[in-house]
């Protein structure tokens, strides 16, 4: 099933995307020394419910929390816990909602307290990689352009790009084709107006291998390299694309 949607569905997805953005902004605003990601998860959970939506990660394939909080060397799918955040932590919050029959999905990385130089380089590059990838999206574009754009940002800085996890189509289902690779590849998928999908590159401080923790969700860098991830949900339009999870 492709990620193409008709006009009525797209309008519902727009609303879900805006809500996902607000909930992600809330999560990021709460990241401060002394507060746990468990606390942040609980606050965001209640905020999503008050909006008449459901936190999409909760119970998805058994995931136990309402958002993903990936700290430092956790590349993605981190489970919120009761460890207080400390100065310098690099935390990626992935917030997804289900509203009116459709999904909204986005992610952002924040640095808790005072950042160190390497953390700033990593987070700024991850944000720039997402921006560069979004800038190439439009009708008639092959999705391979996304991976090329990410690589042009990450490789000159010596940063790693996680290859095992990718973006995806989204709408009435949480994850659909196409898979959106964030590294140079030969996949063939031509975009057309009405396609909705995510771009969500994960960059690491250096190229590294990954492993999945005993909790069966948290994906770690083997050599403790820190990671940063940013994600937007995009709609292909006749003249380019709309960022459905853009800052308002």
UniProtKB/TrEMBL annotation:
Top class in the EC scheme: hydrolase
What's its EC? 3.4.11.18
Q: Which CDD domains does the record associate with it? A: MetAP1
Q: Where does a divalent metal cation 2 bind?
A: 105, 168, 200, 231
Cofactor: bound how, per the entry note?
A: Binds 2 divalent metal cations per subunit. Has a high-affinity and a low affinity metal-binding site. The true nature of the physiological cofactor is under debate. The enzyme is active with cobalt, zinc, manganese or divalent iron ions. Most likely, methionine aminopeptidases function as mononuclear Fe(2+)-metalloproteases under physiological conditions, and the catalytically relevant metal-binding site has been assigned to the histidine-containing high-affinity site.
Q: Which cofactor does it need?
A: Co(2+); Zn(2+); Mn(2+); Fe(2+)
One of the entry's Gene Ontology molecular-function terms is:
metal ion binding
The residues that hold a divalent metal cation 1 are 94, 105, 231
Q: What does this protein do?
A: Cotranslationally removes the N-terminal methionine from nascent proteins. The N-terminal methionine is often cleaved when the second residue in the primary sequence is small and uncharged (Met-Ala-, Cys, Gly, Pro, Ser, Thr, or Val).
Q: What is this protein called?
A: Methionine aminopeptidase
């Amino acid at each position: 099933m492709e990620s193409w949607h008709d006009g009525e569905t797209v309008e519902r997805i727009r609303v879900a995307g805006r809500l996902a953005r607000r909930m992600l902004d809330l999560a990021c605003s709460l990241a401060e020394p002394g507060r746990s990601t468990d606390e942040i998860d609980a606050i965001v959970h209640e905020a999503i419910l008050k909006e008449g939506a459901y936190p999409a990660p909760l119970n998805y394939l058994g995931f136990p929390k309402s958002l993903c909080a990936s700290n430092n060397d956790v590349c993605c799918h981190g489970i919120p816990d009761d460890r207080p955040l400390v100065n310098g932590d690099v935390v990626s919050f992935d917030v997804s909602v289900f509203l009116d029959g459709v999904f909204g999905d986005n992610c952002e990385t924040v640095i808790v307290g005072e950042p160190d130089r390497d953390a700033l380089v990593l987070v700024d590059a991850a944000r720039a990689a997402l921006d560069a990838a979004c800038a190439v999206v439009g009708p008639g574009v092959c999705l391979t352009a996304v991976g090329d754009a990410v690589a042009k940002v990450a490789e000159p800085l010596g940063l790693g790009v996680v290859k095992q996890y990718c973006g995806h189509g989204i709408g009435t289902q949480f994850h659909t084709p196409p898979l959106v690779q964030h590294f140079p590849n030969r996949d063939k998928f031509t975009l057309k107006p009405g396609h909705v999908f995510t771009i969500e590159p994960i960059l690491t401080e250096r190229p590294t291998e990954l492993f999945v923790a005993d909790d069966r969700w948290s994906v770690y860098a083997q050599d403790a390299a820190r990671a940063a991830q940013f994600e937007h949900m995009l709609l292909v339009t006749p003249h380019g694309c709309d960022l459905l999870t853009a800052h308002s």
